[in-house]
Amino acid sequence: GKKSLRQKIADEVKHYYNGFHLLWIDTKVAARMVWRLLHGQVLTRRERRRLLRTCADLFRLVPFLVFVIVPFMEFLLPVFLKLFPEMLPSTFETESKKEEKQKKKLNAKLELAKFLQETIAEMAKRNKADTG
């Protein structure tokens, strides 16, 4: 059924609390990785990607905090998220947004694979025509 206004507000507060909590955890892990880098250790590819994602999230947090700090500006947040969908840090994404991104990436990969298959098939036809 429909949620009451109170329930919607409570869900939003939980969402932002969880997002900030996850960002805090990511920041602590990234700080340890930077410490390891400064002491000459090498990061794995997965660790390097996580470090880069966390740094990008921290830079995205600055404009996001303006919406949280300035009174009544949070009402404009949905408008800005439509204009700039990558504005929110990754820890604030909902599951539906993550699934939507994954579907877009998968569709792009499928289109690229189709293009490559068509190109290879065309090249094979040319080679057969040249040799035949």
What do you see in this structure?
- It is found in: Mitochondrion inner membrane.
- This is LETM1 protein.
- Keywords: Membrane, Mitochondrion, Mitochondrion inner membrane, Transmembrane, Transmembrane helix.
- One of its GO terms (biological process) is intracellular monoatomic cation homeostasis.
- This protein has a domain of 38 residues.
- It is an all-alpha fold.
- It is flat, with a radius of gyration of 22 Å.
- The longest helix has 37 residues.
- The chain has four helices and no strands.
- Helix 1 packs across helix 2.
- The mean pLDDT is 88.
Share of residues in strands: under 5%
Report helical residue fraction. Answer: over 70%
Taking the alpha carbons of the first and last residues, their distance comes to 68 Å
Major sheet description? none
Low-confidence stretches: none
Mean pLDDT across every amino acid position: 88
Q: Decide which structural class fits the backbone.
A: mainly alpha
Mass-distribution shape: flat
The SSE string, one letter per element, is HHHH
The gyration radius over C-alpha positions equals: 22 Å
**Strands, total number:** 0
Question: What's the helix count?
Answer: 4
List its salient traits.
78% helix, mainly alpha, single chain, 4 helices, mitochondrion, 132 residues
Furnish the topology, listing elements before pairings.
Blueprint: H1 5-38, H2 45-69, H3 77-83, H4 95-131
